[in-house]
Amino acid sequence: MINAIYNTGLNGVMNSQTSVNVTSNNISNADVAGYKKQTPIYETSISIKSSGLHIGTGAEIAGIEASMNYFVEQQYLSTSADASRYNQQLTYEKQMESTLSQTDTTGLIAALSGLFSGWNTLTNDPTQPGAWEEVLSSGQAVASTYNDTVAQMEDIYQSIDQEISSQVSEANTLIDDIAALNAQVAANPTDNEAIDARDQAIRELSTYMNVNVKYQSDGTATVLAEGCYALVEGQQTHHLLSQPAQSRESLMPSSTFEGGVEFQGTSSEEIMLEFIDDTHYYASLDGGKTWVTDESGKPVEYEAGDVDSAETIANVDVWFSTTSGTHTAGDRYIITPKSGLYLEKSDGSYLNLTPLSDDQGTLASDKATSGSIAGLFITRDDSVMPSMDAMDGLAESVIWETNVLHAKGAGLEHHTSLSGSYAVDDSTVSLSESGLFFADKLESGDVEYVCYDDDGSVASTVSIVVDPDTDSLDDIATKINTTSGGDLTATVSADGTLEIASATGLSFEVAQDDANLMAGLGLNTFYTGTSAETIAVNGYVSNNSQHINAGTVNEDGTVTSGDNSTALQLAALSEKDVTITACGVTYTDSLSSFSSMIVADIGAEVQLAELNQAYAQGSNEYYYDYQLSVSGVNVDEEEVNLIKYQQQYEACAKIITTAREMLDEVLDML
């Protein structure tokens, strides 16, 4: 019995020492990230029976438990992913906003306003060199503003792509670390240091990806991306990859097609194709929920063909390379015309996790939805790329609307030669099928040129009829040469452009162009280029400002000095509704209003990102503090525990002393 008392005291002393060690360790690690407060777990020792009575023998420490609320932790991980996503979006969208910063004299709106002001100044007196210079400088300001803006956006795009690669690599390192720490925990489930390190690594991973955690009976953690795709299973890992643009196929068992889908171009969309028969297919931009439709709302039936018959879907040219066989209804292809996020599966295949949003901006639930990596993709695909597309659409419209008026006008000096800036791929096929960039702008109609003698008198008139659906560029050159009787010579250059020159002693003007031929071929135009990156003032105009077309050719073939009819039309473009195509959507709006919309859209995205970031960050901090109240170290509480365990130690030591004294008395009695 005395021995039992002694052992009870001895165990109590040892328990107290262990508890003091645990408490001291808590205090020492109070500021260590990821450390969870540890608590010694006491269990009552087995009692003994004496004189028919069950007598307790004290307690022993069954384990040391790290405190954590698993439900709160999952909420923390989720809100951490959200906060990281919006942090990334806000960072880069603010950079986008900076590229579109506006002042009274700089930016998209000011540049375009300056151009229209220049044309308006020219209307007052088209013969004044000062007015010519204002038009040239304002036209160049528009071009350089568009060039610089889209170049900065391209830099942001490239920066995001580099950041994606870097973050994917960092996430994979954490995935490997978690698996290695799982191995340590499986070998020793009571290794709280390894558990803390693993859980901290999971927290860090949650900033990159939206993860869910399932804790297994052996103490290991299974980490799932988006709640269903395994990143870590015990010691097995599944890595993330950032891969370039690619396509995947899923053919029906009855399909005999051998070949593949080819594509050219980039888009923020993921394009799904589904065959409805052996040669026609539908296209979807939302994973098959809806099909691309025509103006009547009916699904567009695209025709499968080779590269010469490529279909354009979401700014991407799509065609098929065929070895043998035919498609059948149900054959599917998924084209990802951009670098994307993929997950390595156990069978060696890859699962596409690239964030995908519909027209309303709702993210597909089976893709990445939050975390900094998702934030980067969402910003790139839903903000940067659409803004670049909008800039290209704006620039293309500015180029065309300016050129189609300017190319029909006349300046103060007649032409002796003109060289086109837009080329065909094949000069022998119809213009509509030739690969000419502005082929869809051409119409059937008359084109007329007036030739002048050295003294400026009308020498001849050259008229041709143009049908873009039947006439090739070679045909156009032949018609001009045949009709002009040698006064004009038209040739097709080696690079596919049209060149027109007058005979010696003659010059010429464009008197009529119902077909929009001159603008379509880049002849007598104010601008060259087709996009925000390539727009530039035509060197033919900038080298000789008297080729700025302010007037037109009169019905008698003469050009009146001071005529401002073309300049008036160009100045009126500031308020005129025109057609602008961006991101596969056609807008009818003024150039000024569309410019304002580009700027306003980015501003609205920044404001939304700020609101979302503030909410997500607030939620994340709430769950952090909540978890900290459970698992964090409160130094004041630990100091109280230290006193408690010290008193427990002293009391247990007193028990040992009492037992020894009792034993001594018994021995003295013998």
From TrEMBL:
A single GO molecular function term of this UniProt record: structural molecule activity
Q: Where is the Flagellar hook-associated protein FlgK helical domain?
A: 94-248
Where in this chain does the record put each Flagellar basal body rod protein N-terminal domain? 7-36
Q: Which UniProt keywords apply?
A: Bacterial flagellum, Cell projection, Cilium, Flagellum, Secreted
Do you know which SUPFAM superfamilies this protein is assigned to?
Phase 1 flagellin (SSF64518)
Q: Where do the Flagellar basal-body/hook protein C-terminal domain residues begin and end?
A: 628-669
UniProt-recorded name of the protein: Flagellar hook-associated protein 1
Secretion signal, residue range per the UniProt entry: none
Q: Which family does it belong to?
A: Belongs to the flagella basal body rod proteins family.
Q: Where does the record place it?
A: Bacterial flagellum; Secreted
